[in-house]
Design a protein that fits this description.
The chain contains 13 helices and 10 strands. It is an alpha/beta fold. Among the domains are: 119 residues, Leucine-rich repeat, LRR (right-handed beta-alpha superhelix); 58 residues, no CATH class. Strands 1-2-3-4-5-6-7-8-9-10 form a 10-stranded parallel β-sheet. Helix 7 packs parallel to helix 8, helix 8 packs parallel to helix 9 and helix 11 packs parallel to helix 12. The longest helix is centred in the C-terminal third of the chain and has 16 residues. The relative contact order is 0.05. InterPro entries: Leu-rich_rpt, Leu-rich_rpt_Cys-con_subtyp, LRR_dom_sf.
């Protein structure tokens, strides 16, 4: 193992904090932040070190704090950090089992410069911490816990009213909060990630009504969502780039599966994994009408077979005949398993051979397949 010089120096300092009484004045801010993260990572926030950390590393110049998986980080450590006068831009608190509401409130109160705040799997933390967070510049907020009912709709609405610029929101919460989130964030919201399994058509329609700038949404397992609400969502959210409709069981049969014809052409990533769609023609038409898709996942879709694969690839070849420059396994990566025979390969190869602008190369992760 070869160490970088700065890593070697930081390792030496973290092992001998007491030997550097003037560390706070001599260490650049970026290395203070990195050293704090390393001390937490190596379980070195023990009481003997905490006074040195507070004196030499907790400073008003700190902007990025990342504390993860350290049982020694307690409310006292976060209170000392809050008293340092730092104006944080990024704060990540992850798997700190000895931190309570008072610790999080101490470090988040008055932090109006925050742009990213992630609070994940802090078992002693409740919705009370939301009352201390007011950051008008915050664009990314994540709160994950093992308890889905950790927050009431009223508490969520109050929090969002003070942090209305959030673009990316990831929560371990009930879907009952979706209308509250949609109405509170409106045009600001670009990505929402929650447990969508129990989401209803009404929730989807709320997103369609209030959040036209939505770019990424994961509906994997949303078995109650149907055609009409999704059409409204796709018509309203014309900038949608990433969509997961995996295991959305209502969309597997006619007429519900017809919603696939209305997928926004802005999509660059689409997952239909586990969608029990038998109609291969709808699948082909759905895929080939999306000109910008670069990440396509179709694992477990019954409609994906030799015939539909050949149709899809031949359609892409036709697109390239009409003016596009190159085609390979990279732009549209999907991996069908145990469903491609020699006839399919021959059909695809023939279409490619007829295009003088396309060169055939061996695909990655294959054994002699051209």
């Amino acid at each position: 193992m070869v160490w970088k010089l700065n890593d070697l120096c930081l390792h030496c300092v973290q092992q001998n904090l007491a030997s550097y009484p003037n560390l706070g004045s001599s260490l650049p801010n970026i290395y203070k932040e990195r050293l704090i993260e390393r001390l937490a990572c190596h379980d070195m926030f023990f009481p003997e070190n905490l006074s040195h950390i507070a004196t030499n590393l907790f400073a008003p110049t700190l902007r990025h704090i990342n504390l993860q998986s350290c049982d020694q980080v307690t409310d006292k450590a976060l209170q000392l950090l809050g008293r340092s006068g730092c104006q944080l831009e990024v704060l990540i608190l992850n798997r700190l089992k000895n931190v309570t509401d008072s610790g999080v409130q101490a470090v988040t109160s008055g932090q109006d410069a925050l742009t990213v705040l992630h609070i994940k799997f802090l078992p002693k933390v409740t919705q009370a911490v939301l009352s201390s967070i007011a950051a008008p510049k915050m664009w990314s907020f994540s709160f994950k816990t093992n308890t889905k009912s950790w927050c009431t709709a009223a508490a969520m609405a109050s929090f969002l009213s003070k942090n209305s610029s959030i673009k990316v929101m990831k929560l371990a919460t009930d879907v009952e909060h979706v209308p509250v989130i949609a109405q509170s964030l409106q045009e600001s919201l670009e990505e929402l990630k929650i447990n969508f399994q129990a989401i209803t058509d009404n929730d989807i329609e709320a997103l369609a009504e209030y959040c036209p700038n939505l770019k990424r949404i994961d509906l994997n397992g949303a078995k109650n969502v149907g055609k009409e609400s999704l059409i409204k969502l796709f018509q309203a959210c014309t900038q949608l780039q990433t969509l997961d409709l995996g295991y959305c069981s209502r969309l597997s049969v006619l007429p519900e599966c017809e919603v696939l014809w209305t997928l926004p052409q802005s999509l660059v990533s689409l997952s239909l994994c586990g969608l029990m769609l038998q109609d291969g023609q709808i699948l082909v038409e759905c895929i080939t009408r999306l000109p910008h898709v670069s990440n396509l996942k179709l694992c477990g879709v019954p409609g994906l077979n030799d015939h539909t694969i050949a149709q899809t690839v031949c359609s892409w070849v036709k697109e390239f005949n009409e003016g596009k420059e190159s085609i390979s396994d990279c732009p549209r990566p999907w991996r069908p398993k145990s469903c491609v025979n020699e006839q399919t390969i021959d059909s695809i190869k023939k279409s490619i051979d007829e295009n003088p602008h396309i060169s055939v190369q061996e695909l990655s992760d294959t054994n002699g397949l051209w």
